[in-house]
Amino acid sequence: MHQESVVEILYTDECPFWKEALKYIEKIASALKSDITLKKVKISSEKDAKNLRFLGSPTIRINGVDVDPDATNDNEGFVGCRIYRYKGRIFQYPPKEMIESAFKRMLSE
Asked: Model pTM?
């Protein structure tokens, strides 16, 4: 039996793409029958961004781990839109497959 997981979606109002990522999270969690606590965290200042190790909007973490396994802290504290690279393509929010993989890694722990 898996314990409940915490999924954080950190975002800014300037980048609306977090709403699409949120839809993926909800669908994937439901399909995997995973108990999650979903926390939406609005980043409104550079100070918030630095304190929360924000990598750009949207940033999604499952149990504190970024959904992008290649994420680095190079842009930590950056208040702006985030770009995701997956299988040679660029996305404005994590593609469904990236989020699914992160959930599956979390469930296998």
From this structure: 0.88
